Amino acid sequence: MPEICRFFGIIIAMFYDEHNPPHFHARYGKDGVAIEINSLRVLEGRIPPRALGLVMEWALQHKKELLNNWELAKKNQPPKKIAPLA
């Protein structure tokens, strides 16, 4: 699972050739979630509320880049790194 960003102990990644809807994965410690890119809805899993809030803030800022990475990953091409939340 290629890592596309890391900030505040949160790892954001995207699998190659993944199923729809377009989504990304966020891990924080032992916990993890899958988040739909367009709606920012949690598809599965859970992470602590504070970490989830940071992930959502980051995803809002980088939605277009996430969708571009989704297209790359679907083609088995490595996704590009995305700037962390500052």
How many H/I helices?
2
In round numbers, the mean pLDDT is 95
Structural class call reads: alpha+beta
Shape from CA axes?
Answer: globular
Q: Work out the radius of gyration.
A: 11 Å
Number of strands: 5
- Kindly state the percentage of residues in helix: 25-40%
What share of the residues does DSSP label as strand, in percent? 25-35%
Terminal Cα span: 24 Å
Overall number of domains = 1
Write the layout of secondary structure elements.
Layout: E1 3-7, E2 10-13, E3 23-28, E4 31-36, E5 42-46, H1 49-61, H2 63-74
Antiparallel strand pairs: 1-2, 2-3, 3-4, 4-5
Description:
29% of the residues lie in helices and 30% in strands. It is an alpha+beta fold and 86 residues long. The chain has one domain (3-74). A five-stranded antiparallel sheet has the order 1-2-3-4-5. The longest helix is centred in the middle third of the chain and has 13 residues, at 49-61. The chain is globular and about 35 Å long.
